[in-house]
Records
---
Amino acid sequence: MGLKSALSKPFAAWVNRQVLRWKNNPILAQDKVFRALLAKAKSTAFGQDHGFETIHNYSDFKKKIPIRDYEQLRPYIDRVVAGESNVLWPGKPLYFAKTSGTTSGVKYIPISKESMPEHIKAARNSLLGYIHETGDTSFVNGKMIFLQGSPVLEKKSGIDTGRLSGIVAHHVPAYLQKNRLPSYHTNCIDDWETKVDAIVTETIHQDLRLISGIPPWVQMYFDKLTQVSGGKKVKDIFKNFSLFVYGGVNFEPYRAKLEEAIGKKVASIETYAASEGFIAYQDSQTDKGLLLLADAGIFFEFIPVSEYFNENPTRLSLADVTLDTNYALILNTSAGLWGYSIGDTVKFISKYPFKIVVTGRIKHFISAFGEHVIAEEVEAALLEVAAKQAVQITEFTVAPQVIPPEGGLPYHEWFIEFVQPPKELAAFAAALDKAMQQKNGYYHDLIAGKILQPLHIRLVQKNGFIEYMRTQGKLGGQNKVPRLANDRALADDLNNYLKN
């Protein structure tokens, strides 16, 4: 056992005791965060505009602070980006995390000197929690790879700006630097495919034990490894590979193909990190829920998805949430985001401890006919049928076809890239439609009432989604394919990548 491995167990036990203090008292932890945020920001422009001095409780807060998305908060953010101090948070941000927005173009999310350590602490604690629960420290002694964006930062009004994963690369603890791959030079390669090729060359002969990244791009890395190694499984290339850390998308649609590429099952940790803050992580190998980080500088609010677009939707603090309800997630952060709608939807699967699963995106749904189908439902239906028929999925997305070019009733159109298509595609489609009707009663009623015809499947060619993402300039990094949309923009583009 190496020195790092020996020291990691007592360190993990110490961190676990710290986590338990707020994990066992999450409402108290949230109240402390709430009051600390208000006290810190009361003299900012935003705090003065919204009367922070007169806010004494959550009820007052809801009256003073409206819910805003990025575009609605943009007048304040633009002032920060222009270099003004004390706008949303005291002083100036430490960084701007640059993200791509569908309606706002490039978004600049402030990261403060108070919020940056929370990102690092949560990432660290997710690994230490795994060590404490399992006793497995083997990955600490080998190499670790983090498939991430370039750490090269640009300046925006004198503030370092880049992708979150690139920013985080500058904060990897010194004791992990010698274990960390790829090299800084390779990480700086901008073109994703060139970068993956370089990473394969750099890592293929290393003792890689932990791999971290967004599943579809990890799969791309695995495919390249297999190709370069002459068809070897990942387990035969990296004999001590034992831990996969992922986030950004639901892992389940990718699990079968990734495990086949690896050649064995490996332990995994799911994380829920965004530019706006590190929200949750999987703290147990025995359940799939993500522990909501009640003590990480974020005061959380929740709006029932069914009310999100109402003029005055219900806003709940953590104390008042219920299980198995889809909520829009609202953040108030130590970087100065207030009443901020991040766009994600979550559902609580337990209370005390408060654990969530991410169910989709507010704007990623299909309700062209009033069915309001969400990502959780399409993913669950597809996985269920694929498992029963022993079919593996590479990638997929769903869109409404309101005016079918071939005539007839409208339908939901599924674009699926299979590892190997089902032997009977029509039977697969019928089973998938049945599963969707079971998941969504409104969809069932529309099928039964002859408003919709059963779904259609379009076979996407091998690497079709990768080719599409390349044309959009969204290959690699933190980019991912939307599971579903209420319009045809993505679907119409995918028609260029169908099998003959």
Note: The longest helix spans residues 3-23.
---
Amino acid sequence: MVIYELTNTISKIIQNSDAPHFEAELIVMSALKLDRAKYLISKTDKADEKACGMALEMADRRKAGEPLAYILGKSEFMGMEFIVNRDTLIPRQDTECVVEFAAALIGDKPYSVIDIGTGSGCIGISIGKLCKNTSVTLLDINRNALDTAAENARLNGVKVDLLCADILNDTIDRKFNAVISNPPYIKTEIIKTLQTEVKDFEPVRALDGGSDGLLFYRRICEILPGILNKNGIAVFETGYDQREAVCELVKNTGLFKTVGAKKDLAGNDRLVYGI
């Protein structure tokens, strides 16, 4: 099968996706190991039979609702490429505002930073890339996720420390200048109503924030006095309807002169911070 025919065939298979032709191109490029420039000049070439079969298998997975990022094994965030898999959430563009805001606060200061619930490591690694004087610790309960984060740090040229811990139960015996987290914040009862790509494929443990979605915010705020240095900062990603509740939890730590919130590019409340 010629490459452009393969692309068109896959586009028809995954026609229910948001951008079937674009996704079909990405699938074909991945299976045939082509970058975009090579793909564009090779459309009339015959596709290798084995690679063609692989591309069709990938299309079937996409048709079944599996996120494209898991099929491709990678996702872009902050202009960098991150390995993703079923142990990690797929980085969202909405989260980039968390990185940008935290990085602006940190600047070139020699800060120690911990990214709690790091998953793929996209937040902590991006901050480490933007803020050259930081030392970054990535914390997650899932050892497989930490292994993925470590590989992402290596691929993006950022040195990190890894900490495998259960933030709900374990004691963190170190202090940091900045605590950053995108914790699980979806209410347990809501998870079953999410789109198939999320509820059936992404790790539930990274989504479930307890009955009211605030379980992890409460715990992190509870331990903040023990893990945050004087004059430190905290930045949390939040759900669109959690601003007031999380602001109150951050205020109640008594650690911060300023507590506030910021919206993402879509105009939704997206982060809460303490300075």
Note: Residues 49-63 form the longest helix (15 residues).
---
Amino acid sequence: MRIVVLDGYAANPGDISWEGMQALGELTVYDRTAPAQLLERAQDADILLTNKVIINEAAMAQLPRLRYIGVLATGYNVVDVAAARQRGIVVTNIPAYSTDSVAQLTFAHILNITHSVDHYARQNRKGAWTASADFVYWDTPLIELSGKTMGIVGLGNIGMKVATIAHCFGMRVCAFTSKDAARLPEFIGKADLPELLSTSDVLSLHCPLTPQTQHLINVDSLAQMKPTAILVNTGRGPLVDEQAVADALKAKRLRAYCADVLSVEPAQADNPLLQCENAYLTPHIAWATYEARQRLMQIAIDNVKAFINGKPINVVNG
């Protein structure tokens, strides 16, 4: 069984062993694969593992040995799953491996806004506290989360974890979700989107990217939000219209935008958010803790092992 990893570096830059995967077949790991290199590298593969390398119907048609595609992420839009199904190719993903890490970064962003931790650390290095006439020094608003409204779009594993943490902070938690209100924990109120937009002090996006959710946050939805609101996106970049968000920030119609994802990655130099003082962007690192990547690797191994044994798990095109 020939196993080819097309772009292993992001998930494993060298601090995690591939030994478990090597035990399952003849393994070749590439750090990165350009589109022009795909067919040559995958030609003799029975099993392909990909993170961001796109595998479409045209590529599958030229890979007659291919029987399995494992996506090294939760989202699997890089694979044409319908074409894979027609060709009898199993496609799997890695669910729920980064729930705790993404929820953690969500609140790292929120806490950075409410207490400006990085700002004050930098100010102290410049001597601001040392020069203060008082025992205390601050020059930004300081915000307590308790009693504020946390709006969440999407209550999957990550959204539910964020809701639980918000509740522990004493926040009122509301969610726009397809889940039945009667089946939600008692501390989560179900709301429609207009209500969520207008009442949230913090609005956090955790829904999948679909044609219906693309640019869910746009000029119209931003106009419904409080100008003091904090918008957080650790889901997918295209959930927001980035130009509309940049305009709202510059016009002070939004307090802050915190994101770990952009519509085009890596960030393009002309992205309007890069020039916004109140846009706080991290480079797609929410999922990338060592612990989360260890879980990703183990689930990837388990997925391949289950496929080889004839009982595939985490199949997304069944």
Note: The CA atoms of residues 161 and 252 lie 30 Å apart.
---
Amino acid sequence: MPRHAKVRPAGELTDDPAVSPIEVRDRILATASDLFYRRGVRAVGVDLVVEKAGVAKTSLYRHFRTKDDLIAAFLRREDEDFWACWDRAAQGHETDARAELEAQLDWIGERVGRPGYRGCPQINVAAEFPDIDHPARAVAVAHKRELRRRLKGIADRLGAKHSDDLALKLSLLINGAFVSTPVFAEGEATPALLTMSRALIAADALA
């Protein structure tokens, strides 16, 4: 779920030369990210982003050449946030792959159970843009490949017999949780993720 950075109220940030370009860009991106996530990318036009960010349209195009560039920046922002959470969860578990996996599933389960959670931004955007050459879809695909790569590393450390296969199944489990928020009752997501991951690990050991 997107971060909610503290930004100035809409309308306060203008093209005042005293306001740094970085602050203007951050305001535009934070506003667009919130709108894209809550309403969907195709439903949000550049004019709405400009209005809610309180900037001139020329400012937006100064930092983002096209709407597609803005969408890709939104996904990169979400990508950075996701992996920052992942890296924090991994800390302290360098020698215990099972503990790391369960720590990852714990925060993911908490995330998908949040009020207002609308699923994984990368999955959402990939569904809106089937064109494999779209820049935002490329970011989304790279994110999912990185997820599987990191899960493969955990599977290797677990001593899995079939680490590629286990990583694939764990990625399907996690991505399934991202799109299953409507079926979860409060507090159900994390226990379900942990139980299913343990079953996958046990099945690999018996294969």
Note: Confidence is low (pLDDT under 50) at residues 1-13.
